[in-house]
């Protein structure tokens, strides 16, 4: 459910996730129930972060950047509060923490007690009491048809709606479920911010976010976050750290090995090793290909060396040349290498879409 419908002059806008915005600004990446985690903006080198992550993994624990005291942001928001039509956007839609809204008639307000007790006992979530008669415009937009109705909001969106009164047991389960949803969304948002930061060359920022997600959302995002750390290490040309983290990725998160970012990270380490190898003599391989353009093995090796040296466009071009000359060479070895290149670069890389189109035209 998303608030998009206008009632006369009043419009309740959908707000972007507070968690995403904060992560992008280098603030808390996990305000929605994960806890306050602060991304450092200086004071220690990126290499130190990698050393910390490697040491933590070798000791069997998960790394996390040290927390820093937050800047003065005024008093914390109330855990339990009454919401009005005039405060709904600020208090609910713009809240960085998930908010449960208990919509009821005036005579039903005592029914909120089980939810209030559960929320008071749970960090990272708030409860709003809403008089559905006083806030009839909000109730109408939310399509509240029965009273009482419990609604849950995270990131500016209504993610759950449940009519009826709750018992103490069901209220506790409900609160925990909403916190879990918010944690998952916060981690997913943070991963997107980290990926964007990495693509823009902000490696230390990306590494900090990946480390924090790996620490605080290990069960749901541990594998992809560790893969992000691998990619950061490769970008920093710290091959030892990248290899250590890649081994941890394979041993600790086997269920994530088919995840695109995990495949991208493992391939990146493999290609980085090839690029760092003294055998990757580009000039010698280029001479071989010039001397015999039909030497597919030499062209294949040249493509690997070029990719390891981050000359991605040239590498892709050479593999496409092999496919054009012999689709079935070595049992489709060139096609497999090209897919590996695409996985490593990621679906958002500008070379991937064009490369896939050209490959398809050659194959079909």
Number of strands: 7
Can you tell me the CATH superfamily of the largest domain? Glutaredoxin
Could you say how many structural domains there are in total?
2
| CATH topology heading of the largest domain | Glutaredoxin
Order of helices and strands: EEHHEHEHEHEEHHHHHHHHHH
Number of helices: 15
Strand proportion, as a percent range, falls in: 5-15%
Could you give the distance between the termini?
43 Å
Write down the CATH class of the largest domain. Answer: Alpha Beta
Q: Percentage of helical residues?
A: 40-55%
Give the oligomeric state. Answer: single chain
Low-confidence stretches: 1-46, 58-72
Strand order of the largest sheet: 3-5-4-6-7
Rounded to the nearest angstrom, the radius of gyration is 26 Å
InterPro entries: Thioredoxin-like_sf (IPR036249), TPR-like_helical_dom_sf (IPR011990)
Biased composition (Pro residues): 63-78
Pfam families: TPR_20
Region (Disordered): 53-79
Name some characteristics of this structure.
15 helices; 55% helix; alpha/beta; 364 residues; 9% strand; disordered N terminus
């Amino acid at each position: 459910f998303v608030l998009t419908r206008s009632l006369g002059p009043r419009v309740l806008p959908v707000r972007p996730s507070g968690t995403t915005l904060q992560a992008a600004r280098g603030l808390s990446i996990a305000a929605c129930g994960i806890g306050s985690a602060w991304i450092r903006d200086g004071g220690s080198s990126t290499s130190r972060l990698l050393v910390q992550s490697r040491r933590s993994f070798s000791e069997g624990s998960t790394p996390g950047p040290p927390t820093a005291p937050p800047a003065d942001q005024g008093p914390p928001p109330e855990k339990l509060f009454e919401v009005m039509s005039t405060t709904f956007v600020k208090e609910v839609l713009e809240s960085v923490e998930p908010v449960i809204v208990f919509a009821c008639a005036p005579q039903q307000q005592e029914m909120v007690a089980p939810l209030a007790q559960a929320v008071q006992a749970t960090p990272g979530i708030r409860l709003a009491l809403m008089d559905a008669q006083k806030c009839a415009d909000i109730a109408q937009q939310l399509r509240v048809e029965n009273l009482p109705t419990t609604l849950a909001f995270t990131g500016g969106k209504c993610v759950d709606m449940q009519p009826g009164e709750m018992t103490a047991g069901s209220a506790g389960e409900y609160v925990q479920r909403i916190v879990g949803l918010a944690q998952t969304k916060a981690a997913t948002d943070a991963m997107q911010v980290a990926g964007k930061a990495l693509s823009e060359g902000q490696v230390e920022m990306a590494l900090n976010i990946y480390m924090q997600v790996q620490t605080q959302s290990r069960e749901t995002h541990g594998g992809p976050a560790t893969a992000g750390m691998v990619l950061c290490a490769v970008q920093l040309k710290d091959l030892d750290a990248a290899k250590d983290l890649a081994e941890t990725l394979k041993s600790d998160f086997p269920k994530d090995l088919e995840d695109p970012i995990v495949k991208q990270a493992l391939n990146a380490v493999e290609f980085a090793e090839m690029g760092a190898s003294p055998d990757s003599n580009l000039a010698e391989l280029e001479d071989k290909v010039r001397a015999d353009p039909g030497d597919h093995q030499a062209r294949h090796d040249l493509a690997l060396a070029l990719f390891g040296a981050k000359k991605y466009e040239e590498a892709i071009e050479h593999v496409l040349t092999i496919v054009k000359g012999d689709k079935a060479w070595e049992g489709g070895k060139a096609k497999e290498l090209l897919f590996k290149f695409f996985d490593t670069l990621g679906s958002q890389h500008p070379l991937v879409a064009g490369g896939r189109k050209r490959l398809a035209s050659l194959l079909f």
